[in-house]
Amino acid sequence: MAVSSYRFIDPHMLAAISDLALLAKTVVDGFMLGMHQSPKLGAGLEFNQYRSYQPGDDLRRIDWKRYARSDRFFVRESDVDTSINIRFLLDASASMAHTEAGLSKFDYARFLVAALAYLAHTQGDAIGLAILNNARLLSLAPKRERQHLHHVLHQLEVARPAGVWPGLADLENAFAAAQKRELLVVVSDMHEQADEILAALAHVRAYKNEVLLLQIMARNELTFAHQGFLAFEDLESGRIVDVEAEQARSAYLAALTQHLTELKQSLHEQNITHEMFVSDQPLDFALRSYLVQRMKMG
């Protein structure tokens, strides 16, 4: 399987899988197989200490730094504990319910977090989960047990987007300072009323945690490929705006470009890694971004 052909991790196909645990395993197994068969090789490997990854190998033995250099997986022959705590923070506000072609941003985000949690668990990391809106705030502390992974996946299955991003005072449990440094993976569309998500990210970054923001947007949010007279509803405020699509397109796209530019600048100033993904993209793009950030922590 060539590198260009393993991007079969299509979110619309995954939506047909009702079992989130099976979905996560399908995504990760496909991703690992595709990466393993990449033709790009690294140089200078100590082959007496490493060998090529084979399906079924313990993911805890993968050397992530060598993966970043070579784009292939190599397994350590010696025991080295490089496990860390990883906490996934999922935006469950109402704007995440925005849907295109039958798939919501929240569904895409849920699939992504499930796959990342499964991958992190299989490589020996402790995984935690926070599902965030002002109607329901769930926080599960990082653990390594397999039963905990099932609990995380179950909570992702039953979660529904509603309300708005919670206030900073309500986030203390989810953002509590850990006993050791964590990798915080935030999955959000960054739809804000008054920079409340940026404030939360600055808060957790102050604890010296590494923060990776995976921003999810729908294709029609980026292109505004609408026609005719339309009524748009803000899913969080309920406000309805009537527009003529052709007249509004230029102003909308200009405002979106400015918003994304300012967002990237703010995140850069806070040393927060930011990647944006479109909800019709295969999930392997996001998995690669996660692995690069994970590699930085050992």
Structure description:
A six-stranded mixed sheet has the order 7-6-3-8-9-12, sandwiched between helices. The protein folds into two domains: 3-76, no CATH class; 85-295, von Willebrand factor, type A domain (Rossmann fold, 3-Layer(aba) Sandwich). It is globular. The longest helix has 25 residues, at 245-269. α2 (20-36) packs across α4 (105-122) and α4 (105-122) runs antiparallel to α5 (146-158). The chain has helices at residues 11-14, 20-36, 64-70, 105-122, 146-158, 196-205, 219-223, 245-269, 284-295, and strands spanning 50-52, 74-76, 85-91, 99-100, 103-104, 126-132, 137-143, 182-188, 210-217, 229-233, 240-244, 273-278. Helix content is 37%, strand content 21%. The protein has 298 residues and is of the alpha/beta class. 35% of the residues are buried.
CATH architecture of the largest domain: 3-Layer(aba) Sandwich
Question: In CATH, what is the class of the largest domain?
Answer: Alpha Beta
> Under CATH, the topology of the largest domain is which?
Rossmann fold
Order of helices and strands: HHEHEEEEHEEHEHEHEEHEH
CATH homolog superfamily of the largest domain: von Willebrand factor, type A domain
Helix content: 25-40%
Mean pLDDT: 82
Distance between the termini: 29 Å
How many E strands? Answer: 12
**Rg, nearest Å:** 20 Å
Overall geometry: globular
Number of domains: 2
* Structural classification: alpha/beta
